[in-house]
């Protein structure tokens, strides 16, 4: 408790409070405007954080992340366009509510549910983080290697959905992570004689290239007019406060689902919102309005995605393993500032860790206070055509990359990776596993080499401890499950297509 109180002092520092407000406001704006997303916004903001205090920088970037979850529900309800992927499920019941004149109730439900889910996620983070860190303090190079491999496999398989494509993107990201000088031998790897690649690729450049440029390229030919949002006022929201009592059970169930799934690699807010909606629907089978404009169909997924957005920080901060692409970027921001995420983060940087957790409380409260009185403004911004925003995004990307290295070569690198990201997107490959592979690949190599130095090249050292064996077993189980799943599906389809085969054989 004493640590959390010291974190509150950090969060209420005037400078940190200002950056928290700036982060959640930008995140809310990004969520309201469909098509940009928190990943692109955080990538564009990364160069700005180089000149900031590390605590203020992480507080701001985190505010953009969970602030986008709040804002994304506004576009989902008013325009039937999800601001973020995790808000897509909200359109099922949210938009029908707005069409029948209950936009105020739908928006109030999402905001309060998001606040409740965020608070529950913070409680889970406070409770679980110290336990995970105490356990992981005994980790050596072998355990870290096993943990990182498990994180790579679990996250990428879940994010991509197709094992071979996901793993291919992971290996491509790991390959990009090896570009530059080898720290052990000093040899130049994959630089092709270009001096600009000797220092390797920056996480800022790769993140902006994979998530910023492909979004712009994909929408260059989209001249469809913006939809007309439903008009709503703050008074219309406040008038429905009494109706929220019926949604409290669904908020708590959604928060529990999000709090559990958030720390799992590859799960995150999107899967949490889908699972929460499915669970809530099973609890409301007899409700004829479910799927046609039920309040509980809005409250459960919104509570889940915001709880997951908070608990997603647990593996990133305590183990140094990002479970989502956004967490990979925030992990990169920590490393840029010379902060090593992992079990020693709390002891080495207690102000950062507890100040960040305390800022979550402050940020969630600020978002609740921002969204209710300013809902009229957000409802107007939601109809802004995205093509007006893309030139600004391109300018910010180029400015940020050039300011990072003072080299035009870096801009060409971003353009090249951005074109590669667009081609991969057209071919159906997700860039998320590639980014995670780029961030974790060098760390996997680092701990593998340490393990080999300690053991004198003995590979069995990686499997000597019970912890490493369990972690490798989980990795093997995930790979086996992904390989067997298509076979099981094929057998089930064959059985359903030949229902008489069994009877015929029996006769």
Q: In what order do the strands lie side by side in the largest sheet?
A: 1-2
- Assembly state: single chain
How many H/I helices? Answer: 24
Mind summarizing the main beta sheet?
A: 2 strands, antiparallel
Number of strands: 2
Structural Rg? 23 Å
Supply the helix-strand structural class: mainly alpha
> Which stretches are poorly predicted, pLDDT < 50 over at least 5 residues?
none
List key phrases describing it.
single chain, 507 residues, mainly alpha, two-stranded antiparallel ribbon, 2 strands, globular
Description:
This protein is mainly α and 507 residues long. Helix content is 72%, strand content 1%. A hairpin with a 6-residue loop joins strand 1 and strand 2. The chain is globular. The relative contact order is 0.18.
Summarize the structure.
This protein is mainly alpha-helical and 507 residues long.
Break the fold down into its secondary structure elements and pairings:
Blueprint: H1 2-11, H2 14-32, H3 37-49, H4 54-79, H5 90-99, H6 103-136, H7 141-160, H8 163-177, E1 180-181, E2 188-189, H9 203-211, H10 213-218, H11 234-238, H12 248-261, H13 268-283, H14 296-311, H15 313-318, H16 325-336, H17 345-348, H18 350-371, H19 375-381, H20 390-405, H21 408-426, H22 432-455, H23 466-497, H24 499-506
Antiparallel strand pairs: 1-2
Helix pairs in contact: 1-18, 2-4, 2-18, 3-4, 3-9, 3-16, 3-20, 4-5, 4-6, 4-14, 4-16, 4-18, 5-6, 5-14, 6-12, 6-14, 6-18, 7-8, 7-22, 7-23, 8-22, 9-21, 9-22, 12-13, 12-14, 13-14, 16-22, 20-21
Protein name: Tripartite tricarboxylate transporter permease
Organism: [Roseibacterium] beibuensis
InterPro entries: DUF112_TM (IPR002823)
């Amino acid at each position: 408790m004493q640590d959390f109180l010291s974190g509150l002092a950090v969060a209420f520092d005037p400078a940190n409070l200002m950056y928290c407000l700036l982060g959640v406001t930008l995140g809310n704006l990004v969520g309201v405007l469909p098509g940009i997303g928190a990943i692109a916004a955080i990538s564009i903001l990364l160069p700005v954080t180089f000149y900031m205090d590390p605590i203020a920088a992480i507080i701001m970037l985190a505010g953009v992340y969970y602030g986008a979850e709040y804002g994304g529900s506004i576009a989902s309800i008013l325009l039937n366009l999800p601001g973020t992927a995790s808000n897509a499920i909200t359109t099922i019941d949210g938009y029908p509510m707005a069409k029948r004149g209950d936009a105020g109730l739908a928006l109030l439900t999402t905001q309060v549910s998001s606040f409740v889910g965020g608070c529950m996620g913070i409680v889970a983070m406070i409770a679980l983080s110290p336990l995970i860190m105490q356990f992981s303090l005994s980790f050596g190079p072998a355990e870290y290697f096993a943990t990182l491999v498990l994180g790579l496999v679990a996250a990428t398989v879940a994010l991509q959905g197709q094992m071979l494509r996901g793993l291919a993107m992971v290996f491509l990201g790991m390959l990009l992570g090896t570009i530059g000088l080898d720290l052990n031998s000093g040899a130049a790897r994959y630089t092709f004689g270009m001096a600009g690649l000797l220092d390797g690729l920056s996480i800022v450049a790769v993140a902006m290239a994979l998530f910023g440029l492909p979004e712009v390229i994909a929408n260059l030919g989209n001249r469809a007019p913006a939809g007309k949002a439903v008009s709503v006022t703050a008074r219309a929201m406040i008038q429905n406060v009494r109706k929220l009592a019926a949604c409290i059970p669904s908020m708590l169930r959604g928060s529990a689902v999000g709090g559990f799934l958030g720390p799992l690699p590859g799960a995150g807010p999107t899967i949490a919102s889908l699972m929460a909606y499915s669970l809530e629907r099973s609890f409301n089978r007899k409700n004829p309005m479910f799927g046609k404009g039920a309040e509980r169909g809005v409250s459960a997924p919104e509570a889940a995605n915001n709880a997951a957005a908070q608990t997603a920080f647990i593996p990133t901060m305590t183990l140094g393993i990002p479970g989502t692409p956004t967490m990979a970027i925030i992990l990169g921001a920590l490393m840029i500032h010379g902060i090593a995420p992992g079990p020693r983060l709390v002891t080495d940087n207690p102000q950062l860790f507890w100040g960040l957790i305390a800022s979550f409380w402050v940020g969630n409260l600020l978002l609740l206070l921002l969204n209710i009185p300013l809902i009229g403004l957000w409802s107007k911004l939601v109809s802004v055509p995205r093509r007006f925003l893309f030139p600004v995004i391109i300018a910010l990307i180029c400015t940020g990359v050039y300011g990072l290295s003072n080299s035009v070569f870096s801009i060409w690198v971003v353009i090249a990776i951005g074109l590669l990201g667009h081609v991969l997107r057209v071919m159906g490959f997700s860039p998320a596993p590639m980014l995670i592979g780029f961030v974790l690949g060098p760390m996997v190599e680092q701990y593998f080499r340490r393990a080999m130095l300690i053991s004198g090249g003995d590979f069995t050292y990686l499997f000597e401890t019970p912890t490493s064996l369990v972690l490798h077993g989980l990795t093997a189980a995930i790979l086996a499950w992904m390989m067997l799943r298509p076979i099981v599906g094929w057998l089930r389809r064959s059985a359903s297509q030949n229902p008489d085969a069994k009877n015929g054989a029996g006769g």
